[in-house]
Design brief:
Blueprint: H1 3-10, H2 12-17, E1 20-24, E2 29-33, H3 48-67, E3 74-85, E4 93-99, H4 103-111, E5 117-126, E6 131-143
Antiparallel strand pairs: 1-2, 2-4, 3-6, 4-5, 5-6
């Protein structure tokens, strides 16, 4: 089962918004939000909450791809998020997430008994490639026990 399939099966908001996992690797995750009238805002584009969920979901997908092998000893948790809406989004949108720190550095901190934090940056784009939003989610790996 792929990360996208697993998240679609276990996270109700993913199913509610019909998010599509286009790519999920430790280097980047790309998700799309189809154009759906039920999730439009007052100007006919995707609601800000739907775009936030899309971007946060992309960040979670890359975290699982990068640190899935650490789940037996740590739980990934989002500790904060900041989003900026840059341009009007109309139609379907994509979110592309990238890690802000090398995987090895984060794992090394975990190995030292620390609770590492790391940013994930996400660009939200519309079909013409224009960036409609930018998000940074700070994640941690909380050691078990």
């Amino acid at each position: 089962m792929s990360i996208g399939e697993m998240l679609a099966a276990t996270v109700p908001m993913v199913r509610t918004l019909n998010l599509e996992y286009l790519e999920t690797t430790p280097e980047r995750a790309v998700l799309s939000l189809p154009d759906q009238g039920d999730f439009h805002n007052h100007i006919g584009g995707p609601h800000a909450g739907a775009m936030f969920t899309l971007a946060e979901s992309a960040s979670g997908a890359i975290v699982l791809a990068a640190f899935g092998d650490q789940l037996s000893r740590a739980v990934p948790l989002a500790v904060g998020a900041e989003i900026a809406y840059r341009k009007v989004a109309l139609g379907p949108v994509k979110a592309t997430a990238t890690l802000g720190r090398p995987i090895a550095d984060v794992v090394a901190e975990l190995d030292e008994g620390k609770r590492p934090e790391f940013p994930v940056t996400v660009a939200i784009t519309r079909e013409d490639g224009a960036v409609t939003g930018e998000m940074t989610v700070v994640w941690t790996l909380r050691p078990n026990g």
